[in-house]
Amino acid sequence: MGMDKVKDLGKEYPSVLDRAYIQYKRRQKVDEIMSRNIVSIAPESTMDEAAKIMGERHIGSLIVTKYDTPVGIVTERDLLSKVMAKGANLNEVTVETVMSYPLITICQTISVKEAAQIMIKKKGRL
Fold first, then answer.
1. Which of 30, 47, 63, 119 could cross-link to 93 by cystine, CB 3.0-4.6 Å?
2. Using alpha carbons only, how large is the chain's radius of gyration in Å?
3. How far apart are CA 75 and CA 109, in angstroms?
């Protein structure tokens, strides 16, 4: 068999390492990829404060906490669609009025694949 044929076979059939990597990714746990440095905000904070924090930290969402308990999430999309698109004053709109709740939570020991399936089922964002 010529070298060209070997190269063609390599393109058509994944190598053992490729298959192993695919299997690993299917079993990868949420704990291995999740964010650990969560930034939070109080529900009574203004959307102006939320926008400043997201901008300064270069992040797209904040977990809303009340008495150190997560109660919701506010995102850049919320800021744009629920506040700015309506011409509302960022200093007059509280995080609580635009946050999404309840939070969809998962156990960190489940696989990323299972987490994705849960998020799709519950219409959450990955």
1. 47
2. 21
3. 25
Give me the count of residues in the chain.
Answer: 126
Torsion angle (degrees, nearest 10) of CA 106, 107, 113, 114: -70
- CATH architecture of structural domain 37-103: Roll (3.10)
Element (H, E) at 64: strand 61-66
Q: Tell me how far apart the alpha carbons of residues 6 and 105 are, in angstroms, rounded to a whole number.
A: 47
Q: Give the pLDDT confidence of 3-44 residue by residue, as tens digits.
A: 555 555 556 566 766 776 677 777 889 998 888 889 999 999
What is the pTM (predicted TM-score) of this model? 0.73
Domain parsing of the chain, residue ranges: 1-34+108-126, 37-103
User: Exposed, middle or buried: residue 13 (CB in 10 Å: 0-12, 13-18, 19+)?
Assistant: exposed
Q: Are strands 61-66 and 40-41 parallel, antiparallel or unpaired?
A: parallel
